[in-house]
Amino acid sequence: MIIRSVPLPEDAERPDLIARLRHRLAMHVPVSPFNATSAAPAVSFTFDDAPVSAATTGAALLEDHGARATYYVAGSMLGTRADHWRVLDAGMVVDLHARGHEIGCHSHNHERADLTTGAMLQADILRNHAVLKAIDSSLPLENFAYPFGVGTLIWKRRLKQHFRSSRSVRPQLNHGATDAQYLNAVPLIDRQMDEGHIDRAYEEAARKKAWLIFYSHDVAERPSDYGCTPGLLRYALRAAARFGLRIETVNSALTRISQQAWLLAIPLI
Ligand SMILES: [Zn+2]
């Protein structure tokens, strides 16, 4: 799938050569391979950093369509005012979880992988986990998204010890051999995506029986450069049914796909 522009990870500055090489290595060396092609094509809606508008306007739109989203939360950001939005607070995390949305993890300090050592990462992941569990011990916290979309091989190996999956921002479908610690995701961001692109992505996902993951941030009539309008989100939710794509959280999709893979492995009698 070709998206209009390959996004720079969130608002990261352009990575230097070493960082790019590390990231490229992370893209191409799998640590948790699985077959993402399944009997039923699917789409997941994910929100990074979880601006308040994603937890209010975004969640309400998902629920209007009988669907739920995945929110990747960084503990250090909770309740803070970031450059482009206000971040949800602890009460909103509990509320989203109670309404059936998935709470996943960013790192606590939301630093780029290539600027973080393995030991720092380990401490940061555990800190984020502890902060979120202290808010609500029933939060599953099974899936992760790379801050700024940047992964490294060291991170992937560490993350595998803690999470079922880690999501990147490589704008491709997930189908066939896929690394659970480097899931692809397509921007649901007005600057990079429009209705025609959504239709083409859905058509390809339906044809390949693939899993499409969208990522976004704020949901507002005048979104930041990293977010979407309610209109674009509503269009993507409605169009999913038209193309026969089920809408699932990341965790639900992983469970279903892994079960189907297991069933398909049973020889027919
Ligand atoms: Zn982020």
Architecture overview:
The protein is of the alpha/beta class. It has a single domain, classed as Glycoside hydrolase/deacetylase (TIM Barrel, Alpha-Beta Barrel), CATH 3.20.20. Helix content is 38%, strand content 14%. The chain is built from 8 helices and 10 strands. It has helices spanning 17-28, 52-64, 90-98, 118-135, 153-160, 195-208, 230-242, 250-264, and strands at 33-35, 42-48, 70-73, 102-105, 143-145, 165-167, 177-179, 186-187, 211-216, 246-247. Strands 2, 3, 4, 8, 9 and 10 form a 6-stranded parallel beta sheet that branches. A two-stranded antiparallel ribbon has the order 1-7. Strands 5-6 form a two-stranded parallel ribbon. Helix 2 links the parallel strand 2 (42-48) and strand 3 (70-73). It is globular. 48% of the residues are buried. Residues 2-13 and 264-269 have low confidence and may be disordered. The protein binds zinc ion. Residues 10, 48-49, 106, 110, 147 line the site of zinc ion. The site of zinc ion has 6 residues, from loops.
CATH superfamily: Glycoside hydrolase/deacetylase
Bound molecules: zinc ion
Distance linking N and C termini = 38 Å
Task: Give the strand tally.
Answer: 10
Low-confidence stretches: 2-13, 264-269
Instruction: Give the CATH level 1 class.
Output: Alpha Beta
Summing up helix and strand content along with how strands pair, one would put the structural category as alpha/beta
Query: Strand content of the residues, in percent?
Result: 5-15%
What oligomeric arrangement do these chains adopt? single chain
Question: Approximately how much helix is present in the residues?
Answer: 25-40%
What integer is the average pLDDT? 90
Query: How many strands, what sense, and barrel or not for the largest sheet?
Result: 6 strands, parallel
Q: Which fold name corresponds to the CATH topology?
A: TIM Barrel
- The global form is globular
